[in-house]
Amino acid sequence: MNISFETIGEREVEASASEFLALIQSIEGSSTTWSAAYLMGLVKSEVNLALAVRMQNSELVGLAIVHAVSAINPLILNEPHLFLRRLVISPHFRRAGIGGALMQRVAATIASDARFGSFSKIGWQTNLNNAGGLAFFSTNGFQPVGRITVGSHVDEIFSMDMEEFHRRLK
Length: 170
Ligand SMILES: CC(C)(COP(=O)(O)OP(=O)(O)OC[C@H]1O[C@@H](n2cnc3c(N)ncnc32)[C@H](O)[C@@H]1OP(=O)(O)O)[C@@H](O)C(=O)NCCC(=O)NCCS
Known about the structure:
Layout: E1 3-7, H1 10-28, H2 36-44, E2 48-55, E3 60-69, E4 81-89, H3 98-112, E5 121-127, H4 131-139, E6 143-150, E7 153-161, H5 162-168
Helix pairs in contact: 1-2
The structure holds coenzyme A (COA).
């Protein structure tokens, strides 16, 4: 598949926020709490990485957003993490290896950027009903470390040592 990666900064959010938000809405529905201002806040935060995946015709097909947190959840794992806030591939382009390629690009970018050097763990969190997301991360070796109740649903929390992350996604 002929794809390219684009680093998303303030300029890209200003130019393409509606396109990014439409992709997020494709999984969260139109009631998503994500907004252009929220997206801008994330890309402006000091330790962050946002990547878009585009097809050759420039169609947006994927998005990954990672940023620093002091803990994913202080009661479960009270350690600084790079947190995968969003990883989404357009529903029409799934199961073609794009999500895996995007994770590899995330790992390579983190390894080459000194801003991420002090982080020894990477993690993420998802709804237990998200079978596809759980299967994808299990394939990539993430282990569950605990569960939390968020409103009416339960989220699984995952964490991985950064060395392991780089080893697996080389
Ligand atoms: C999770 C997600 C990012 C995966 O993207 P993708 O491009 O389809 O992933 P890949 O094609 O690289 O999949 C790699 C492997 O992961 C596993 N996998 C991925 N999606 C799966 C699914 N729905 N069911 C079972 N296994 C799955 C498979 O082992 C797959 O390899 P295979 O296709 O050769 O069997 C995508 O399904 C998505 O955007 N889901 C909605 C958002 C989400 O759940 N994000 C993650 C939590 S924040």
